[in-house]
Fold each of these.
Amino acid sequence: MNNLQYNFLKQEGFDKQVIDLAQSAEEQIKRVIDDILSLREYNQYKVIRALQNNGLSDTHFAGTTGYGYGDRGREILDLVFAEIFKAEDALVRHNIVSGTHALSLCLFGILRPGDELLSATGKPYDTLEEVIGIRGDNRGALKDFGITYRQADLTNDGEVCFENIKNNIKENTKMVLIQKSRGYDFRSSLRVEDIEKIIEYVKGIRSDIVVLVDNCYGEFVEEKEPIEAGADLVAGSLIKNPGGGIAPTGGYVAGKEKYVEQVAIRLTSPGLGKEVGATLGINRLLFQGLFMAPHVVAESLKGAVFCAAVMQNLGIDISPSPFSKRGDIIQAIKFNDKNKLISFCQGIQKGSPVDAHVVPEPWSMPGYESPVIMAAGGFVQGASIELSADAPVRPPYIAYMQGGLVYESVKLGVLSALQNMINKHLLIL
């Protein structure tokens, strides 16, 4: 940190101890940052080459209306995603409204009455619980359609338990779900090499089981994607990693052609599948967001590593550590205190580029079991590739910080969060 940066932060009201913490953390993580930049370069080349190989032209940015027949931009976008993810096919649409929606399309597109879904990574993310039917009134859930569910609980250390997976695979197990990200759990995210071991184990028991990977928060964090580890399908959101902070909405599914077609049929209807869907002029934003994605994901990772180093130096429990290999962009911070959790999230909001003046409070968000506090001062509503921090307000009061279009945004957000906690006498340096 040079004098110009130091003086700016000082003038903005940050305590000297907070600035010194930041400087110390940045010195500690230089090697990790170099590794992130190397990864960024590789993934950036991969995206550029896919755009070139599929002949992307500005004519593909034109939108269609009505049925959207013959939308060449839509078709090229699918091809580009398929190449990047090493998949046979892909479905990329602005009217897939979230990662949960993309995963729901996969579940309802593939599973039939009498089939069973097995989660290999314990309890799935909160918003999938009502999709499956393990929470809520089951209106339209898998359970409503006679599709059963099991889960292979993780070990006490938060690791995948292969014995539990084996014991829960039955004759009617049709699909195994693997969640790459930590979700709202204080466990390590999975890396592609971990996913490959799970898939090899599952396929060794029953080769006909369809493996679906929830790839949210995990795209471009590593050199490989889960399809390369043997996954049959992956799904995610465009307002997370692969949208690069530019895509205003959307989601994707990629994988084996026959399964992607079944998902497309669920999104539209039998007989139509991928052949319809007006793009309404949104193609350029989806292409440009994808182009920017490796760079933006790297900025997010740099910010997460910085946050981890600062919090670790304060003696706060974190996951992962600054020097751990990462499988997603999420940094978990365990506060063990409700007020500290809320103050941290409110401080992140103070460092955001949009709505910095707003004070977030816990509320009952649709799809979540507990009240959730969410700091999300972004240009796209709810875009967690932009700087955000959210948490279910329940013990042990863990904040999940992710995103950041630029590293400086994350750094400012983390420092604002610390200063907010100090000002409220919740943190003493």
Amino acid sequence: MLVLDHPVRGSFCGALADAVQDGARAAGHGIDLLDLARADFECLFQPEDRAHFLGGPVPPEVAAMHRRVEAADGLVLVYPIYWWTFPARLRGWIDRVLTAGWAYAMDAEGNRPLLADRPVALVASAGAGRQTIADFGYGAAMRRLIDEGTFGYCGLATIHPLLVTDVHESAEARAAGLAAARALPQRMFA
């Protein structure tokens, strides 16, 4: 399953998503694309999500997303880095979909993951350069907060990061990023 979050489909993130899809098809994999900017899925946490967290039923649209994720051999998220993290829509999708009782448990046995591990690729674009990202400690923060704190917490520990930097300044960086995105599905399922 490929989850794209960018408001402009013709953006560099859109091109990264297309490259991942091309690579998946070339490797014999299908792709279930969810373009959050154009999807009929509310990404903001709703009162019924809170009710579900407190033991109520899973909202039907969230249950449908659960089925899509369950049917996928892997998960690819493509997004720009906004304020050193996910854009709001993708963060909301994660908040609504990676739910207690389905992705993780909080019960008498403690907190524990419930999802079977499968590869997760985090394909992010950044206007900042590699040195800026290193100077601010973003790489380490991303591994801790996103890789471990979000996906690892749910049992998804096989993370394939692809961070494309300097996207506003360097045609070479964009070309290299697109090539790496095309090769990603082969690497994920090797």
Amino acid sequence: MTAAPDPRDSAGASDALLRPVRPLNAFEDTVERLLQTIRLGVLHPGESLPPERELATRLGVSRDTVREAIKSLADAGYLVSRRGRYGGTFLADALPAPSADEVRFTRADIDDALRLREILEVGAARMAAGRTLTASEREALCQRLADVRGADPEDYRRLDSRLHLAIAEASGVPSLVPLVAQNRMRLNELLDCIPLLARNIAHSDEQHEAIVAAILAGDADGAAETMTAHVWGSAALLHGFLD
């Protein structure tokens, strides 16, 4: 007979994992931290999460951010919310399993794609902001931004990629574009293995708008800083779901 898990066994690990997140990617980092506690076995099947208020305090985020992260993970099948006297948010008894034909990625695979992305795309944003763009280049950026903001879920990855390629084109370095395209293909293989979270899409849209605005205003530091945050928002979700 297997003994019931002692809550004290997971206290130290929980304290270490549920620590304050980075403010620029609060939602994505909150999802990653919660997934770490689940995937590393800190929480056991059927065990309850700490209350929203406590999670918000420990993670240094708003209760709305915690609530959105919990809802996203419930929609993805990792958590279950129950009402009533003994209600709360609980780890699902059976976690989502990868499909039999799903490609498995190591942390090294993920880090390699993401670090290369940071080198290429942060540099592209900085270079684009440092140039005097033509009217057609400015129009292309605005159109690609509008396309991705209004994208249906099934079209989001494709239109997101087109916006990032338009930023690479605006850098004025033609040989950069195929490198970004190749890296985006690797990145999309990774992203296709995780759920498309509505709150993350909304946050990505806000960052896209800030990146394009900085480029059009000639703010190279602002464009690079926001692109860096954007890259590592995706990284937090990929590590959370795939590690």
